[in-house]
Amino acid sequence: MRGKNVERLIRALLIVVVIGFLVWAFISGAFQFIMDNPDDLAYLLQQHLKLVGLSSLLAVIVAVPVGILVTRPRLKKYDWIAINVANIGQTVPSLAILALVMTYLGIGYFTAVFALWLYSLLPILRNTIAGIESINKSIIDAGQGMGMTGAQILWKLEIPNSLFAILAGIRTAIVINVGTAALAFLIGGGGLGDLIFTGISLYDTGIMLSGALPVTLLAITLDFVLGKLEKWIIPKGLQRNLESL
Amino acid sequence: MNRRFTKKAIISLLLSLMMIGMAACGQEQAGGDQQNQAGGNEAKGTITVGGKDFTEQHLLSKITAIYLKEKGYNVEEASNMGSSVVRSALENGQIDLYWEYTGTALVIYQKQAVETDPVKAYEKVKEKDKENKLAWLNKANFNNTYAILMSQDKSDELGIKSISDLAKYVKSDPSALKFASNAEFYAREDGIKGLEKHYGFQFPTENVVKMDSGLLYNALKEKQVDVSVGFATDGRIKGFNLVALEDDKFFFPAYNGAPVVRQEVLDKYPELADLLNQIADKLDTETMMKLNYTVDVEHKDVAEVAREWLTSQQLIK
Prior knowledge:
The structure holds two protein chains of two kinds. Chain A is mainly alpha-helical.
């Protein structure tokens, strides 16, 4: 109970600090740039969303099936390869991935999407594998005992039971992606990084914040929306299990 | 449950702080050539040399740092800053000197009118900065003004030799050419906006690709863009077979490099002026291009190139 109160207090404090900062920034004219150039901001925001949207979508389409594939009984021996690749890949700095991809694919939007896709694959892949492998063996045994086929076990038992982990992976990947996409500017990929880097090179806090703030808000909003989505997708019967976790 | 979580959170927080700390220490050790040859106790004093975030500036600050070390000063280096950042650092006394370009100081910091004549530009900034207690030493003979670049083949193919030719071409077919710019040139008054106004043309927004300064030349070389902004003294212009279009209507200001030192520091170490002028007097556009080429195209280490040049000029042994 005490822990809950402390948590509430900290959260309230944080919110106060954030709102205070925003008010201060607004008063000191930091968002003048946004006021003056709403079109620029809209254009860059749309570029940013395209970068994040396309790369995240492709990452989900590829990583989830691959994660399911390597956990099939026939391939189970090899799943450590996928896990290790995902783990090592995760430790490479995002900027380095951008740079590496650029040396092969040149500059521009698609290079940026490819690099972001590569970077988002890993958390999704890792969570998918971990989610499926952490399912209680007795559930699978029960399924087999009832005479379910492999496909039935996958669709009716494994996927619903690991959905929480898979969705958490996707959520993490997308939120990280929003921040990483700010680096796409450096290789001519556009996006809100444009304002951040322009702000840095001109030493103009206003322009910098005009880029940094939308990126932050975008990440928070997406996190919130995806959290709600999670509740909606995961079967009701399993959510009670989650609360006891 | 909650308590376990807090413990974990605290431990991971401490771990991440440690990592940040380690990274910070690592950065201080990076950069090579940091050892102080004079021995800490007999140094004449400590000088902090600043620098901006591109190759020529890395070279200039490195040359200055090595030379001052040889002459018995303790030198700290703070490089890789944006223009306005490094200027603020100088005004705040966080750094003692760095190499600035006349045009940048004139237009950006002093808000004076653009000056295309190198000598006049230099006189103006020198005079004006006296109020700020900043001393401009000798103007070096290299003019690192902006250049509008194209690949040699493309320039021949389209018959574009000057910026006027380019303006004509863009007006007749706005979406034909892709233009690469860095953040600064795109946003600055003496950048793309001013250029377009001066020559009376405009690239459509969707034809301008913005990227890190270091990639502009590669983008041209790899034919990913047709036209790019660059710097006149960059070694890659020759290295990648590019041409700088002639600024036939004299838009780009003079950007001669010169060491700028805080007056306070000069008063404290009067011989600094002489030492820095020795470097400034030996640099010209040709030299700067060659040095930049060695670093950017031949990928030689900045410290090594700086040391070799100082040795070749008999400034150090």
